Amino acid sequence: xxxxxxxxxxxxxxxxxxxxxxxxxxxxxxxxxxxxxxxxxxxxxxxxxxxxxxxxxxxxxxxxxxxxxxxxxxxxxxxxxxxxxxxxxxxxxxxxxxxxxxxxxxxxxxxxxxxxxxxxxxxxxxxxxxxxxxxxxxxxxxxxxxxxxxxxxxxxxxxxxxxxxxxxxxxxxxxxxxxxxxxxxxxxxxxxxxxxxxxxxxxxxxxxxxxxxxxxxxxxxxxxxxxxxxxxxxxxxxxxxxxxxxxxxxxxxx
Length: 254
What we know:
Layout: E1 2-5, H1 9-23, H2 35-52, E2 59-66, E3 70-75, E4 82-83, H3 91-107, E5 109-110, E6 119-122, E7 125-128, E8 135-136, H4 140-154, H5 160-167, H6 173-181, H7 190-197, H8 203-210, H9 224-250
Antiparallel strand pairs: 1-3, 2-3, 4-6, 5-8, 6-7
Helix pairs in contact: 1-9, 3-4, 4-6
């Protein structure tokens, strides 16, 4: 089960606003306007993933706790599941993980948050969960990032060279090269990024070196919306700072 409430909306809004200002629009960064829409979207994406053949937690409907404020998305209980990085990762599991990405590519879907905590392993079968950020008909760039993040996650469990070799059975070397040309710190989920930093080796660079050379793919996108948001944030910061100074002066602390 997944519980969604109004508490989840504010972090989502600030997170996406910050990403838009700092990096530009990284596709579908608009926040959800209500908890109802958030849970409806996640339920819909679970069903799309399931129908496309992506192994995930089967959805069983939505329970309303408090109208417009709190809902529970009821899903299949995956008994005995562990996070991918806590389980035994064989070549078969690696192949399952890569097949998940290929299936999403073929179905015109992107998960957008592939990381260890969203990959559950139970009885040798891998499931991809937490599809709240998933996207329909993403750009090739967005799909390439999913591939890179899956390969990086697998490389936490088995050697990068092994991951690359298995990946070439499902994707072309050019597709893999494009994935790592698109990879930046911002495209890697925070949990995965932190786990990669704990390692002594540079997994991203190791995989990048195994693939054919590619020029980095730029992700900065300047739009009128981004310019406006950036100006509004800067103006708001200046106004807030001025108010703080005025209040401090009023009470004699300046």
